[in-house]
């Protein structure tokens, strides 16, 4: 067949037929070969969570220690290990009020109280929450230094708590701290389990 003798419309038709034949010749085997696997859409996969180190735990060490802060420790560590990681207890620490052998749990806060008047760090029952490795602070007898060791309570707020207690009498519930200037609901939630009225 002489392509030069064809009209332009016939040439386009001939080119389309050749192209279709080429696609069928080269594409059909691929379609039939991969029909069961390649044509199906792969299932979506949930993103993998960021790597979580399950061999270590994070604890917050506060109070009468040299370097208060967050520390990563091996699982199976004890309160004594956390205090050592925080540089050890200070000279004013009441380490007798802390159970150094208590096992650590992830997210636990260890408060090493300052030495205070006799009986200030006596163990009081905490109620329903998980056991704390330190004795809870009694709002009605704690000194400014003991209150200052609590998370989120600085020396000025600790003094306000003592002043409020002296002006209005004993606290009967943790929620009464809301009346102390500078203490709100967030800070009260932070103190649950760490203080008793």
Detail the topology: elements first, then pairings.
Elements: H1 8-33, E1 56-63, E2 69-74, H2 79-85, E3 109-112, E4 137-138, H3 144-148, H4 155-168, H5 185-191, E5 195-196
Parallel strand pairs: 1-3, 4-5
Antiparallel strand pairs: 1-2
Describe the overall structure.
- The chain is elongated and about 115 Å long.
- Among the domains are: 53-116, no CATH class; 136-197, Orthogonal Bundle (DNA polymerase, domain 1), CATH 1.10.150.320.
- It has helices spanning 8-33, 79-85, 144-148, 155-168, 185-191, and strands at residues 56-63, 69-74, 109-112, 137-138, 195-196.
- Mean pLDDT is 77; it is low at 118-133.
- The longest helix is centred in the first third of the chain and has 26 residues, at 8-33.
- It is 30% helix and 11% strand.
- By secondary structure, it is of the alpha/beta class.
How would you briefly describe this protein structure?
Helices cover 30% and strands 11% of the residues.
Brief descriptors of the model:
197 residues; alpha/beta; DNA polymerase, domain 1; 3-stranded mixed beta sheet; two-stranded parallel ribbon; 5 strands
